[in-house]
Amino acid sequence: MPRLTFTNILGSDIAVGNADGYGKSFTIPAAGLVVDFTGVQLESCGPQLDVAKTKGYISWVKVENPNVSDDLEILAGSPSRPAMLSIGPVAAKSATSVHASMQGDAVGAQVVTTGITSPVTPRNLRCVFGVTWDGGAVTVTGTNQANAAITEVFTGTNTTIVGAKAFKTVTRIAYPAGGTGTTGTNTLTVGTGDTIGIAFDVVDAVGMLHVGTTIEPVTVDPTYNTFIPTTNPSTTTYLLLCNVNP
């Protein structure tokens, strides 16, 4: 169910015009408002409050049936706010943009701190393992979009392993090595993926994404404060509407 939140600003009122163009208003509680709704809103017709002024209703007309109206229920109790965020331009993902080829048959454990290029926009990483990789799991260290230290472990062979966390910087790539696979294919490269970091603390998984003039589905992850667009990055600028903490 979609959700829209309002924060209290100096005890201000929220005004909603009715079908005849007249405005009505009611006070936003100090704790803020959370709006949950279903259906598609065509036009609002004005709010009504309960006696305690903690719950309100805004009547609206359904697009799918203009002769039927419904109620939008507004409840007090959220300090979060909606934010419209411009993110990008975000380059296309790459298999080698963070680090070029490393060897799984290197002698001894490898701790790589040079030759690393951090993503221009905070985003997830991809480890691409060669067909004879036997150099062990890869641990990547860096910072996220909030500048907090993070690590992520990539375990795999003969495949591409996609991470979930957004890396703003990458400072260290480590793996046991000592493998015996064929040198030419016992390789590892580290690049970027399609998941993009959000520079705010996201409240929930509700979001709306604009790509140019198109509105498209989006997957928002409040655990890692990231989103996955339907249109994959390719020097793309996104406009994301989501709920964030102040």
β-sheet strand percentage? over 45%
Overall average pLDDT: 78
The biggest beta sheet, please? 6 strands, antiparallel
Helix percentage: under 10%
Taking the alpha carbons of the first and last residues, their distance comes to 22 Å
- C-alpha geometry: elongated
Helix-strand category = mainly beta
Could you tell me the number of beta strands?
A: 21
* Number of self-contained structural domains: 3
Q: Helix and strand string, N-terminal first? A: EEEEEEEEEEEEEEEEEEEEE
The radius of gyration is 24 Å
Low-confidence stretches are 6-27, 36-63, 68-79
Could you write a compact summary of the structure shown?
The chain has 246 residues and is mainly β. The protein has no helices and 21 strands.
How would you describe this protein?
With 246 residues, the chain is mainly beta. It has three domains: 77 residues, no CATH class; 53 residues, no CATH class; 100 residues. Helix content is 0%, strand content 57%. The strands form five sheets. Strands 9, 11, 14, 16, 19 and 20 form a six-stranded antiparallel beta sheet that branches. It has a five-stranded antiparallel beta sheet with strand order 1-4-7-6-5, with no helix packed on it. It has a four-stranded antiparallel beta sheet with strand order 8-21-17-18, with no helix packed on it. The chain is elongated, with a radius of gyration of 24 Å. 30% of the residues are buried. About 25% of the residues have low confidence.
